[in-house]
Design goal:
The protein is an alpha/beta fold. It has 15 helices and 16 strands.
Length: about 500
C-alpha cells in the first residue's frame, strides 16, 4: 500500500494553490545470493524512495535508491559505494545492470543484444569489495521532485550535487552506515557530478575514501563547436577505431596505435590547429597526410576541412564503402547507413548503434530486478529524461574563480576537494573507443590542476579497449575487476 508525503510549502498569492502530495511506493527488500563460482555472498536488495529535504525542512522530493548490502555483521570497515550514470537526465540503471551490480546482462561482442535478456550473476561485480547503492537523479527513473518544489533548483550542476549530497546523507541515516569508508562511482556526466560532490560532501562533513570516474568529463569547453581541444581529443579515438576496422595501422597493436595518435596530437597536431589560417599550405598538407594515415580518412578531405574532422563526419565516412556508419558511445558498433532522405544532422547525431544494441534490453532486465524486490513503482521509467537534459542549468562557479560561466569546469572542484582531503584516492577509467568523453581530454583537464606530487600519487589511470560504457566489453570487465579490488584495498595502506 502506498504512503504519502506531506508538503508544508507556503504559497503566496490567491492564484497559487498547493499541489496534491504524490503517492510514494513503500520500501521493499529481498535477500539474495551472489556467486562467481569461487566466492558466495548473501545480500539484501532494497528498493526505496528516500525523502530529501532542504536545511529548513522543506521537502525537495523522494530519491530512488536500489541498494545491495551484504549480511556481514561488522560493517566498520565495509565500504559503501554510491553509483550513478550521467546524462544529465540519466537514471542509474545502466551502471547497475550493465557491469557493476551483483547481476548483469552479459555481453561478449559488439552486437545487438537479444530481447528479452536474462540477467545472471555478475562475476565482475563490485559486491565482494563494497556494498552498492544506486541513486537516480531527480526527474529520472523513480526519483520524483515534490510537486510544490521547483525542479529547476535541482536540474543543474550545483543543485544536482546538493541534492545528491542530501540523498547520500539520507541513505546513511536510514541504514545506519555513518563513519564507514565511502566511495563514489560515476559514469559520464556522473563524473562531473562526482567532482562537485567531492567538494560539497566535504563541506558538509562527509569525508570520502575514494572516487571512481568512468568515461570522464570534467571540463565542458571541449564540447563547444569549433573548440580545438575537441578535435585534439577525438584524434586518438579516430585512430583506434580505424585500427579496429583495418583502415589504418594494420597489424599494429590497438593501444600502440592509440598512443601513436596521442603523441601526434601532443607534438604536431595541436600546434597546427593553433595556427589556423596562418599555417603554411605545405605544412597543412603534410599534417593532413599524417592524420590520414592515422585515422583512415582521405587526406584531401582532411585538408579541405582544414584538419578539423567532426565526429559525425568520421562516423559517416569511415565505413561508407561498406554501407555502414559507426557508433558514438562505442565506435566499434555499426548499423546500416541511412538514405540521404534521412540526412538531417540533428537526427543522425542522436543515432547510435552502441546505444541501440544494449539500452532497451538492459532497461527491461533492470525493471525485472527492481520488481523482484517487491517494489511497485511506476511502469514509466526512462533511462534518459530529455526534459531534464534540455532544461539543465549549466551555470557553475568553480571554487576560487570569478563569475559563473554556463560552460563548467569542475576539475577545480576536484582539485579543491583533494587539497582539503589528501587521503582521498581517485581512479580514472577510460576507453580508446569512447567518442562521447575522449580520454585525451580527461588527462589534459587533470594536468591543468597542477596538483603537487603527493596528491598526484593518489590518482591512478586505466585505459582499456572499451567505449563509453565499459560494460559493453567483456574483456574490459575482466581487467577492471582486479583493478577495482586493488583500489579498494589501498584504503588499508594509509
Amino acid at each position: 500500500m502506498a504512503t504519502t508525503t506531506q508538503s508544508f510549502t507556503v504559497t503566496l498569492g490567491d492564484a497559487e494553490k498547493e499541489k496534491p502530495a504524490q503517492p510514494v511506493p513503500e520500501k521493499a527488500s529481498r535477500t539474495l545470493t551472489w556467486t562467481n563460482g569461487s566466492q558466495t555472498l548473501d545480500y539484501e536488495a532494497t528498493a526505496e524512495c528516500l525523502p530529501v529535504h532542504t536545511d529548513d525542512g522543506t521537502l525537495i522530493g523522494n530519491m530512488f535508491a536500489l541498494s545491495y548490502v551484504t549480511d556481514q555483521q561488522d560493517k566498520t570497515d565495509r565500504p559503501v559505494t554510491f553509483c550513478w550514470n550521467g546524462g544529465p537526465g540519466g537514471s542509474s540503471a545502466m551502471v547497475n545492470i550493465g557491469g557493476l551490480g551483483p547481476r548483469h546482462v552479459p555481453i561478449s561482442k559488439q552486437e545487438q543484444l537479444p530481447c528479452p535478456t536474462q540477467p545472471e550473476d555478475n562475476p565482475w561485480s563490485l559486491l565482494p569489495s563494497t556494498d552498492l547503492v544506486y541513486i537516480d537523479a531527480f526527474g529520472t527513473g523513480y526519483s520524483k521532485v515534490d510537486p510544490n518544489y521547483d525542479p529547476k533548483k535541482v536540474w543543474g550542476v550545483d543543485g544536482d550535487a546538493d541534492a545528491f549530497m542530501r540523498g547520500i546523507a539520507a541513505w546513511l541515516t536510514e541504514h545506519d552506515r555513518w563513519n564507514c569508508p565511502l566511495y563514489l562511482y560515476g559514469e559520464s556526466y556522473g563524473t562531473m557530478r562526482n567532482s562537485v560532490l567531492m567538494r560539497v560532501l566535504g563541506e558538509r562533513g562527509i569525508a570520502l575514501t575514494g572516487v571512481i570516474e568512468q568515461s570522464t568529463i570534467l571540463d565542458y569547453a571541449p564540447t563547444l563547436s569549433g573548440n580545438d581541444l575537441y578535435y585534439m581529443g577525438m584524434v586518438p579515438v579516430y585512430a583506434a577505431t580505424a585500427n579496429y576496422f583495418g583502415k589504418a595501422g594494420k597489424d599494429v597493436d590497438q593501444f600502440e596505435w592509440f598512443d601513436k595518435a596521442w603523441k601526434f596530437v601532443d607534438e604536431k597536431y595541436g600546434a597546427a590547429l593553433i595556427k589556423s589560417d596562418t599555417i603554411d599550405p605545405a605544412e597543412e598538407a603534410a599534417i593532413a597526410k599524417e592524420l590520414s594515415e592515422l585515422i583512415g580518412i582521405d587526406a584531401s578531405i582532411i585538408q579541405k576541412k582544414h584538419l578539423r574532422i567532426e565526429l559525425d563526419t568520421f562516423r559517416k565516412l569511415l565505413l561508407a564503402d561498406e554501407g555502414l556508419f559507426i557508433g558514438r558511445y562505442d565506435t566499434r558498433f555499426t548499423e546500416a547507413a541511412y538514405m540521404d532522405v534521412q540526412g538531417d544532422n540533428e537526427f543522425f547525431a542522436g543515432e547510435d548503434p552502441s546505444g541501440d544494441a544494449i539500452m532497451t534490453p538492459d532497461q527491461s532486465a533492470w525493471m525485472k530486478l527492481v520488481h523482484e524486490t517487491g517494489f511497485k513503482g511506476s511502469p514509466n521509467n526512462l533511462l534518459l529524461s530529455m526534459k531534464v537534459n534540455e532544461e539543465w542549468n549549466w551555470t557553475h562557479q568553480a571554487p576560487g574563480t570569478m563569475g559563473s560561466p554556463v560552460c563548467p569546469n569542475t576539475a577545480y572542484d576536484m582539485g579543491t576537494a583533494l587539497r582539503r582531503n589528501p587521503k582521498c584516492r581517485v581512479l580514472f577509467f577510460g576507453g580508446i573507443h569512447d567518442a562521447a568523453t575522449p580520454y585525451w581530454n580527461v588527462r589534459h583537464s587533470v594536468s591543468k590542476m597542477f596538483l603537487p606530487e603527493y596528491l598526484k600519487d593518489r590518482i591512478e589511470y586505466h585505459v582499456h579497449e572499451n567505449g563509453h560504457m565499459a560494460y559493453e566489453d567483456q574483456p574490459t570487465l575482466e581487467k577492471m575487476a582486479p583493478e577495482l579490488a586493488a583500489f579498494y584495498e589501498k584504503r588499508h595502506e594509509d
